[in-house]
Amino acid sequence: MVFDREQAYKVLHPHFPGLLQIQEPLADHCSFGVGGAAEIWLTLSSPQELEVLLRACTIHQWPVLLVGEGRNILFADAGVRGIVARIDWQQVIFLEY
């Protein structure tokens, strides 16, 4: 399946106004300062936002990569296809399936 960045942006924008970044340089988000661009970058600030994002990605079958503070990750120079979401809150999450 091909990831349609414009469609994903249109669907996600009402849930995350002002928070979506297109073609965001991943080098800006890792301690090593390397990596190409994320098609869509998003910083999540609550478990509820994570749930909204994962539901949308599941429904639309969009690729998603969840990252933390970027201290122990290397992004490829080619970038990351799909959505890269940074989890930016301090509480531990336990999800039940």
The CATH topology turns out to be: Uridine Diphospho-n-acetylenolpyruvylglucosamine Reductase, domain 2
Strand content: 25-35%
**Average pLDDT:** 92
Question: How much is the radius of gyration in Å?
Answer: 13 Å
Order of helices and strands: HEEHEE
Helicity level: 10-25%
Task: Characterize the largest beta sheet: strand count, sense, and whether it forms a barrel.
Answer: 4 strands, mixed
Compute the separation of the termini in Å: 26 Å
Query: What would the principal axes of the Cα set say about the shape?
Result: globular
Using DSSP, what is the number of strands? 4
What's the CATH H-level homologous superfamily? Uridine Diphospho-n-acetylenolpyruvylglucosamine Reductase, domain 2
Tell me, what is the CATH class?
Answer: Alpha Beta
Output the strand order for the largest sheet.
1-2-4-3
Count the helices. How many?
A: 2
Flag low-confidence runs.
Answer: none
Question: Helix/strand-derived class?
Answer: alpha/beta
Tally the structural domains: 1
CATH architecture: 2-Layer Sandwich
Write the layout of secondary structure elements.
Layout: H1 5-12, E1 21-25, E2 37-44, H2 47-60, E3 64-67, E4 80-87
Parallel strand pairs: 2-4, 3-4
Antiparallel strand pairs: 1-2
Plain-language structure description:
- The protein has 97 residues and is α/β, with parallel strands linked by helices.
- It has one domain (5-87): Uridine Diphospho-n-acetylenolpyruvylglucosamine Reductase, domain 2.
- Helices cover 23% and strands 26% of the residues.
- It is built from two helices and four strands.
- It has helices at residues 5-12, 47-60; strands at residues 21-25, 37-44, 64-67, 80-87.
- Strands 1-2-4-3 form a four-stranded mixed beta sheet, covered by helices on one side.
- It is globular.
- The relative contact order is 0.25.
- The mean pLDDT is 92.
